[in-house]
Amino acid sequence: MPLTSMVVLWGVITAVTASESLELRQYKTVWTNLRLPAYKLIGEIQRERLVSAQLLRNVTDESAVATQRTKTDAARDSFSKLSSTSKDRSEEIRTQVDAVYTQLDRLDSVRGEIDAGLSDRLHSVEAYNSVIDTLYGLHRKVALIDDIPIYEQSRVVIEMGYARELLSREQAIGLGTVNAAERRLFTQIAGNRRFLIDQGLGELDPALRDPQVALVSSPAYQRMRMMEDQIIAGGTPLGWLSTTEGLSKSFHEAQMKASTLLNERAEPVADQVLSRAFLLAGTALALVIVSIAFSLRMGNRLSRELGALRLAALEVSQERLPHVVAKLRKGEKVEMPELSVASSTVEIDDVGKAFSTVQQTAVEAAVGQAQLSEGVGHVFRNLARRSQTLLHRQRIQLADMQNRATDPEQLDDLFKLDHLTTRMRRHAEGLIILSGATPGRGWSRPVPLLDVARGAAAEVEDYQRVVVEPMSGQRLAGTVVGDVIHLIAELIENATVYSPAHTPVIVRGEAAARGFAFEVEDRGFGMEAEELAEYNERLASPPEFDLADSDRLGLFVVSRLAARHDIRVTLRGSPYGGTTAIVLIPEEHVAEPEPEAPAKAVQKEPAARPMRVVRSD
């Protein structure tokens, strides 16, 4: 990577330096294809503006206007042809050239308004002004160059050229008597022109300034300024057209000489930049070659040592640590050999020692985590067993109180307490499941699956909303009855919590090809597809219990119980907009319905109570 970076850097330096030279050389191309045709087009539009103003003042005939329009169209066609080859030089230039095309397309409408007598002198002059302003905007865009002195002088020359454009506007407005609006515009233009000339003369270098100073100091220029003052004062000076025409031509010649001189200055500068680029590129290439030779020698040695360190690190991360963690989860003791990598480089040797330290720290952290998990499990189990014992005694006492109660209200309160005790027992069993142990509740004989569903519904708080539909007579093996009741109760409680209080929760069941399937359906707001996929993944592959993830205890208990008995739990959307939980119990846990007893044997023996409670040790 360092070598590649050096080569890329060398290429960038070479390209940037060479591009500067090419940029300077393109200055001449831009002058030939854009700026020079634009100057020629500006001159023709200025003359057309002048003869149009003369036509509106009835001091010239239509033939002169037609002749000048032909010259303007020829200059426009020449500009369009040449500019099309260089306008794609940049996005800014392309945008400005397109703006010029748009303004040039307006010339025909401007001419039509003049010929039809729909446009006055001031409106016609301003229409031509907007076209020329766009052309000068193009000059400013294409005058950008990386050489600062040339750019500064080019900018000033453009502004001096614009001063000449302002003089041409004065020339068109000051023909004959002017009205108040024309006089205000004339005064503004004259002030702007004088400001541009005074500012530009101070910024031009001597070679470009001297011709401009000679013009400004000439008697003709001074006479023209006096005429300007007369027009501003409301007068009509004689000889205005001839005086300004001569000055306009002189300013145009000085501007073209200055622009040509700047164009000639760019070429030697480009050659110097190109020579510097070759020298810099050659020096950088020599340094790159020396660096490559040295880096290859050092890189081979470092590559071998780093390769050995990499293999050792991969062995630690992919084999040793997973093996150690697996043993720790089983409660076995482990020993980790130190990581040793032979190296002649101090840094690589230090990295090897750091990996060895990290390995030992990781093992110690895994041991601490295993001990913490085991301790938390013992705490959960002890608390749950104690709670189970107390709850069992409480249920016995409540049953006795129910048998002795005669007041209906007291009996109803006792039933509520009994239901609350049943829920508390389920939560205690949840703690036992989280600890990794097995709850003590069990049955000695198979229990009808309908009774299993009813028992699960009785263990939730909002049991009045639960509707258990009739089911077939299959029975559930007694060894799994307690866990299945707990599993379905968790799903029913989740359905009641996450659905509106006025909606029912339906529990139905039916035989399937591979066992028996329960469905717990709510009519809540449902879950997004991403949530369903995440929950189904957790139910299919129960993760390690995380103490920080206490909001999903029910989900963890369900996944643990399902994994313990190979039960498959799946969540999906309900047709009512809620969620349906499907519990598929394997066929090895499902027994056929109990055969009916003979009629004469009915009620000869009391029904056996199917549930037994195993007390905690």
TrEMBL record:
Catalytic reactions on record: ATP + protein L-histidine = ADP + protein N-phospho-L-histidine
Leader peptide range in chain numbering: none
The organism's place on the tree of life at top rank: Bacteria
The Histidine kinase/HSP90-like ATPase domain, residue ranges: 479-589
Record Pfam families: HATPase_c, NIT
EC number: 2.7.13.3
Region annotation Disordered: where it falls in the sequence: 592-617
UniProt entry tagged with the keyword Transferase: yes
Keywords: Kinase, Phosphoprotein, Transferase
Matching PANTHER family: SENSOR HISTIDINE KINASE TRCS, SENSOR HISTIDINE KINASE YKOH
UniProt-recorded name of the protein: histidine kinase
